[in-house]
TrEMBL record:
Protein name (database record): Cyclic di-GMP phosphodiesterase response regulator RpfG
Organism lineage string: Bacteria, Bacillati, Bacillota, Clostridia, Eubacteriales
Coiled-coil intervals, chain numbering: none
GO molecular-function terms, A-Z: cyclic-guanylate-specific phosphodiesterase activity
Keywords from the named record: Hydrolase
Enzyme Commission number(s) of this protein: 3.1.4.52
Domain of life: Bacteria
Length: 358
């Protein structure tokens, strides 16, 4: 249900009644408890009162319902538009990478244009995030992956409050972060069997190979090449190519690393299947304890988990549910609503979300 709102008002939590629609996210300790545009029903009120207490809630005074069919059509249209746009950018990026390799820097005008196009497609961010969760980058671990990582990095940069020039540099680095893979044997990148140690070491050279090309581009800030070089470094020193730790890793590389991991988790590759949608969030959280930057990861998870609220999902029992509340301490197990009944997946060992629905 979509709502066209004109006026809002504040009510006490105990004044909530069925049919009221939340006008502003209600958050507690960084977790979204009630999401904007969520329509309250009696079962929800009863369950929420047993779980928590909220002092005030902002609701819509007046609302006009749109036909559900129109809403579904709009959602599908938004996702179709993003998917087509990202596919087009990916195809053009492939040509630009060839030009960049052959002419050493002449193609940077195209990279700047890609950055603008990607950033222009980020409104609403929720559609981009859901598109990446739903589809990932598939078998294309260079071009479409680069577009997805650039989009996520731009979203993270905005959440961090980066001003426009810094945000542009971050997006350049994200678009170019896997440029070095264009110099790796294509068959090796597409191999479906487990890689040998020598093969994996070969693939790992892409960060340095990309850096060697990018660092020589005239008038390009060094932060871009550092983001390319260090995006596989990890805070505990377990990353590559230099085994850097903590503050030695450039902030751009720390951001790109989060986006890189998130898209890879949500993508089918020849050698692996994509993870479950909420498992991907949990993996990022686990990696934040020593490998990915903790503060950036925390901010990323607190923000992105809010986008899952109100989304329809499919359980492993093939039952359709709606996500009502995320648990930041157990991201794989949200509170869901099915046929007017709340299910706390953290208390259900045999139930889990297997798929997000469009």
């Amino acid at each position: 249900m979509s709502i066209v709102e004109k006026k809002t008002k504040i009510v006490n939590f105990n004044e909530l009644v069925e049919g009221m629609v939340v006008a502003k996210n209600v958050e507690e300790n960084g977790s979204v408890l009630l999401k904007k545009d969520l329509c309250i029903n009696s079962q929800m009120i009863k369950k929420l009162r047993s779980l928590l207490f909220i002092g005030k809630v902002e609701i819509y005074e007046e609302s006009v319902e749109k036909k559900p069919s129109n809403i579904e059509n709009k959602k599908e249209e938004q996702h179709r538009k993003i998917e087509e746009e990202f596919k087009e950018i990916s195809l053009k990026l492939q040509k630009t990478f060839r030009q960049l390799a052959n002419e050493n820097g002449i193609a940077m005008n195209e990279i700047r244009e890609f950055s603008k196009k990607i950033q222009n497609e980020l409104n609403p961010s929720s559609v981009v995030i859901k598109n990446i969760v739903l589809y990932g980058s598939g078998a294309d671990s260079i071009y479409r992956h680069g577009v997805n990582v650039a989009a996520l990095s731009a979203i993270i940069g905005k959440w961090l409050g980066f001003e426009s020039s810094k945000l542009n540099l971050l997006v350049y680095a994200a678009i170019l972060h896997d440029f070095g893979k264009t110099k790796i044997d294509r068959d090796l990148l597409k191999k479906e069997e487990a890689l040998t140690r020598n093969e994996f070491n070969n693939i790992k050279t892409h960060a340095q190979v990309g850096y060697q090309f990018i660092k020589d581009i005239s008038f390009l800030d060094k932060s871009v090449s550092y983001g390319v070089l260090m995006h596989h470094e990890r805070l505990d020193g377990s990353g590559y190519p230099l085994g850097l730790k903590d503050e030695a890793i450039h902030p751009f590389a720390k951001i790109i690393a989060i986006a890189d991991v998130f898209d890879a988790i949500n993508s089918d590759r020849g050698y692996k299947r994509k993870k479950l949608p909420f498992e991907a969030l949990q993996i990022v959280k686990n990696e934040s304890l020593g490998k990915l930057d903790y503060e950036y990861s925390k901010m990323f998870l607190e923000h992105i988990s809010g986008y899952y609220i109100g989304e329809e999902v499919l359980l492993n029992t093939n039952q359709k549910c709606k996500v009502i509340q995320m648990n930041l301490n157990n991201l794989e197990k949200p509170l869901v609503l099915k046929d007017g009944e709340f299910i706390d997946l953290s208390r259900e060992t045999d139930l889990y979300v297997k798929e997000m629905l469009l």
